[in-house]
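This protein record is not my work; I was only asked to verify it. Where you disagree with what is written, explain briefly why. This is what I was given:
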Amino acid sequence: MSKVLPTQRNGEVLPLGNSTLKQSKARAPLAMWLPAVMLVFSTGCATYSEGPASNAASATGSAPQASRRDQVLWSYRNAALAMRAGRFDQAKVELEDALARLGGIYGPDKAASSARRLFNEEAKKNFIGEPYERVMAYFYRGILYWMDGEPDNARACFRTGQLLDSDAENKTYAGDWTLLDYLDGLASVKLAADGSDALARAQSHTRSTPLPPYAPRANVLFFVEFGNGPLKYASGQFREQLRFRAGSSSAKSAVVKVAGQALPAPAYDDLYFQATTRGGRVMDHILAGKAQFKSGANSVGDAAIISGAVLASTQQRRHNAGDEIGAGLLLFGLASKLISGATNPTADTRCWENLPGHLSFAAAELPPGQHIATVEFLNAAGTPHRVKTATFTVQPGRDTVVFLSDH
């Protein structure tokens, strides 16, 4: 914020606005400054960044066209769109790009360091997403690996996702994604290894519906997603607190019908639950410190301006020592207000907003050949909310992966 002061010429002060002030000596009395000072005092210099608007991902969106700090976010969004459109090769490219960038960002990151400074907002850093968003990138990549006949690489992705969730502040909810452990164990069974430990861990994470035992002969794997994922918003005096809002959704479960079988697909994982049970972030403490500094600097500025104004209004002699003290307090107060206004503790609310709300899974043993599956997405009353079909071909000697979404 800049401040325009009157200009002097031959003992006069040039017009400022519609008024003309005069003085007999070169230095104007301190009281002359009060209107401008009190304008700053009353309006303050606080600014709030609303952050980038939530741009809905488009089918033609391209991560390389986004700003560098948002490239991972756009790769996330485009990958989800491609998965639902059956463009699995494109989804693979988008996820590979995002995960490669994640690997680079985990090292020293100048943008992240800059975001910790007082005057920079958190959204200045390169986006990598909250843990639940990063987990979903690995989850989707795991599905694609299995689709390509690579359950070992799929298992590595599921394990990496669970590892990303293991550093939660609240250890009760660390590494508690149900399907990540369940699919870890299933991949192990497919690879002729023991998956019982992973199955036991997955069973311990379930909060309602028990998981089915592994069926080693099941050769068709249905990955099912439905509902809308969590959204981010900022709260607090200076919008320094990151919060999550549950996505609205009518679908609460699903059932897959194929070859005379009805396979239940309940909500094994809830993304809103995952987003809200991790506890605080390291960045939360940094933003809280910024907010405290901003509030303190603002209060100090208020006190200094008030004190300086009182001294200025009570002085009758121009060169009185109290006049000098008042001027110093006013300038100090202005500086404090400017620093407070420039301090930016706003939380980063950029969001992978086209994620699903729930994840599910079902498996079946089917003979080779073409099949048609019907998936019914059910509301809370168990009534079909949406029905979709998928045609797929079962090949002998390998698993067939079918991805089903209500989006």
User: Anything to note?
Assistant: Confidence is low (pLDDT under 50) at residues 1-64, 111-123. DSSP finds eleven helices and twelve strands in the chain.
